[in-house]
Specification:
CATH superfamily of the largest domain: Glycogen Phosphorylase B
Keywords: Glycosyltransferase, Transferase
Number of helices: 16
Shape: globular
Protein name: Glycosyltransferase
CATH architecture of the largest domain: 3-Layer(aba) Sandwich
Strand content: 5-15%
Radius of gyration: 34 Å
Number of strands: 20
CATH topology of the largest domain: Rossmann fold
GO molecular function: glycosyltransferase activity
Strand order of the largest sheet: 11-10-9-12-13-14
Number of domains: 3
CATH class of the largest domain: Alpha Beta
Pfam families: Glyco_transf_4, Glycos_transf_1
Helix content: 25-40%
Length: 583
């Protein structure tokens, strides 16, 4: 039962009111079952922790009201003012405590407290009465401040920071800021991925901005409709010795002061709803103070999240995982004696900051997610693979009839095998040359190698054509007119776009099951899969494609159906869902 006692107005002072209050306290503690809601408050010693305040010596934690009655209050709230009458309410049931009475057990207690006796009423919502314990939805990213929270893991919904409401921008548009090291005309799989994504998002009605490093080249970035490119100054452009290669600089895994300055300017001008970072430029983004208020998506195109060389290779074999001793030798060989340990330390030191700041990681394959140990780190992630434009795979499956007008003049007129990518041993170029030399000399096709030179190819035999720095249209022409495509990668390739392009344009494919390629092809259905580094098996597969036209046609039909999982429209829709869950 509830006991309500009206005390006189001077109950806070000395006399009958104070005596009555003391008696009620003792009676409540004896008569009520369980723990009483009123417990005697022990007064502090009179002269303990004295301090001078306004010419008087007062005990710490005490204040005086208008009538001079000493009150004990907290430090953050003012003392209660004495009213004409004080109402003492004794509750039989204890109040629910936070954490213990969450969930279904909390609702009966909340209803009891919301009754007329307690005088507590839940706030009314826009669509009706609010539910007990209901938390209002959070505003969009542009109108809120990000609060720290722990992600929910792979496959979960929005990041665990409370309910969210969709952003109320006109027409459902989202203002996306893509952060990339480079942008076309710089050639590479990551650069094509960023450009295709920007074009696809712009075509779907979103406002797209791309912030990329200024390489200092005479040719500016490619102008695409609906995409605005912002060039960022960087220390590497002014000091080329910081770049591991002279023709293609990269962002270091440390904040670049010039890049941070320009990114802050871009944030002020653009005011993005979401930022989508690619590769190590994220280090400069995290150093921008205003970037903390913008939801962040981070695409992992390689193993740079944990591996300083980004390749996850140790002594010409796939690495089991990063370790200080192994990484020191690899980074010294890859970057040099002075730069290698610095890059290694920066990648290792920036790992906790990336885990805290990134809302969603989007690795390009399941292998990349496992190699970067996303499950062990307890972060939210979702596989978003590389993709090809829809129109590239628009031709119907069947016999290949490429138009003669789009054939590049540098291609041989005779049948040829085609390779595109870095001209390195890890891409399988040395194994491909050995396998090509074992083909039957009578009907052996030519071999065309296109890519960045990273190995000595000056002594290649006759019939091998080596080209450097082709643009994307010329590479597609090489795939489209080739007898077959050979991409025998020997390192754990994350998700090579060249494999998708070969299947999309109808080139019969021979490849390996390294890295993310295993999720992209099916043996004897969409490609011929051979062991990595096995020149004899590669020779046998290439010879089959040369001798069997029916096999080539069957692989083309299977690849045309298999590549539809990697079309631009499907991947862009997946990313839209991720953006909507964050904003």
């Amino acid at each position: 039962m509830d006991a309500r006692v009206q005390l006189p107005g001077d109950a806070h002072g000395a006399g009958a009111g104070a005596e009555l209050l003391r008696r009620l306290r003792g009676r409540a503690a004896r008569d009520l079952p369980g723990r009483g809601r009123l417990r005697p408050r022990h007064r502090l010693p009179r002269r303990r922790h004295r301090r001078r305040r306004g010419g008087r010596l007062l005990p710490a934690g005490h204040r005086r009201d208008r009538r001079g009655v000493r009150l004990r209050t907290g430090r953050r709230h003012p003392p209660p003012r004495a009213g004409p009458a004080a109402e003492l309410v004794l509750l039989r049931a204890p109040l629910p405590r936070r954490g213990r009475d969450e969930g279904p057990a909390r609702r009966p207690a909340a209803r009891r407290l919301a009754g007329p006796r307690a005088g507590v009423r839940p706030a009314a919502a826009a669509g009706g009465a609010a539910r007990p314990g209901h938390r209002p939805p959070r505003p969009c990213a542009r109108h809120r401040r990000r609060l720290p929270g722990r992600p929910l893991g792979p496959g979960a919904g929005p990041v665990g920071r409370g309910p969210r409401t969709p952003c109320r921008h006109p027409g459902g548009r989202v203002k996306v800021l893509l952060l990339a090291q480079f942008y076309p005309p710089v050639i590479g799989g990551e650069e094509r991925h960023v450009r295709n994504l920007a074009v696809a998002l712009a075509a779907r009605g979103h406002e797209v901005h791309v912030a990329t490093l200024d390489t200092g080249g005479a040719e500016g970035p490619v102008a695409d409709p609906g995409v605005r490119v912002h060039l960022l100054d960087n220390v590497g452009r002014r000091v080329p010795a910081l770049y591991p290669t002279a023709d293609r600089p990269l962002a270091l895994p440390v904040p670049d002061p010039l890049t941070v300055r320009d990114l802050a300017r871009v944030v002020r001008e653009v005011r993005p709803d979401v930022a989508h970072a690619h590769n190590w430029i994220i280090a400069s983004w995290l150093a921008v103070p205003s970037a903390r208020h913008v939801p962040l998506v981070h695409s992992l195109h390689d193993y740079g999240h944990v591996c300083p060389t980004k390749r996850l290779m140790f002594q010409d074999a796939p690495c089991s995982g990063p370790a200080p001793a192994k990484c020191f030798g690899c980074t010294t060989d890859h970057y040099g004696r002075g730069r290698g340990p610095v890059v290694q330390a920066a990648v290792r030191a920036g790992l906790p900051a990336r885990r805290r700041a990134v809302d969603v990681f989007t690795p390009v394959s399941r292998y990349v997610a496992d190699a970067n140990r996303l499950d062990e780190q307890g972060v939210r992630w979702q596989v978003v693979p590389n993709f090809v434009p829809d129109e590239l795979a628009g031709q119907p499956a069947g016999p290949r009839t490429p138009a003669a007008g789009d054939r590049d003049p540098a291609l041989p007129t005779a049948p040829y095998l085609f390779f595109a990518g870095d001209l390195s041993e890890q891409k399988g170029v040395a194994t491909l040359l050995r396998a090509w030399e074992r083909l039957r000399p009578g009907d052996r096709p030519d071999l065309v190698l296109v890519g960045r030179p990273t190995m000595d190819l000056s002594g290649v035999p006759a019939g091998v054509h080596v080209h450097h720095h082709w643009d994307h249209a010329r590479v597609l022409s090489g795939f489209r007119h080739a007898l077959a495509a050979a991409l025998p990668s020997e390192w754990p390739d994350p998700c090579p776009t060249t494999v998708l392009e070969a299947m999309a344009v109808g080139a019969p494919l021979v490849t390996t099951a390294q890295g993310g390629i295993a999720d992209m092809v099916a043996h004897e259905e969409s490609a011929l899969v051979v062991p990595a580094g096995d020149a004899l098996s590669l020779t046998a597969a290439l010879q089959r494609l040369v001798d069997e036209p029916e096999l080539r046609a069957r692989l083309v039909r299977g690849a045309s159906a298999h590549v539809r999982r990697f079309l631009q429209s499907r991947v862009a829709a997946d990313l839209e869902g991720i953006y909507d869950s964050l904003v």
